[in-house]
Amino acid sequence: MKKAVIFLILVSSVLFGDLLKDADKLYSDKKYVEAKKLYEKACDQNLSKGCFRSAFIYENKQKVKQDFKKAFKLYEKACDLGDAKACYKVGSCYDTGGVLKVKKDFKKAEKYYKKSCEKNFELACYNLASLYEYTLDVDKNGKLVEKYYKEACTKGALLGCYKLAHYYESQKDMQNAKLWYKIGCDREDTQACFRLTDIYVKELANLKPEEFKEAFASYKERCDNGDTMGCYKLAVMHSTGRGVKQSYKKAKEIFVKSCDMGDNASCMEGYMMIESGF
Which of 135, 174, 173, 168 is nearest to 149 (CA)? Predict the structure, then answer.
């Protein structure tokens, strides 16, 4: 009996796989009506992709009558069947109303974003953090803002890194702000790089003359030990002549060294110096 059940499951898996494969082929050939029929058949068999693709066709009026209500119901079913993107779609509809013209409900948006985020869809984590930061009990949800921006960042949503850093900066936590701006910068988010370098330069500008010598020694030691933040500040001191003899050549050398260690902000500065002929 057990072997028979396993056999039936395997056969069903192959058949449903072929069904979706055929539907995908029709869709890629822009035979949307025929594709929709197969996707709906797959959806009736509780295959989440069939529900999601059917919803997409109805939403975007792909040779069928546009039907937002039906599209939304299909997205809901796809989410219930475990599709992370569908959960995000439903959440965003409740969050903004969206093109599907759903009545806004921020608590439902929270629920669906959370389901999607738990399935590792990074944009849902980002939107959930934004919901906590700007809409839902803003004064009480600081830890949730941190948690979900961090998840968004670590799961691949680059803007999550920047927004987490910006949140820390708004809370006057500059150590964490610099840490997450740097993570974003090193992943080639130029916005994060510019904000990070602004902070570095401002910190240097706020040094008193009597602090230059101690700061220079500290940055040099940190740079020698592989700390790229220390290298960046050391290079800026050389390029501006603050606390040390001004030398663009030395600054460029340090930026290049730091760039070679993987610091994107230093790469950006070094490149600009090279392009400027230094």
Answer: 168
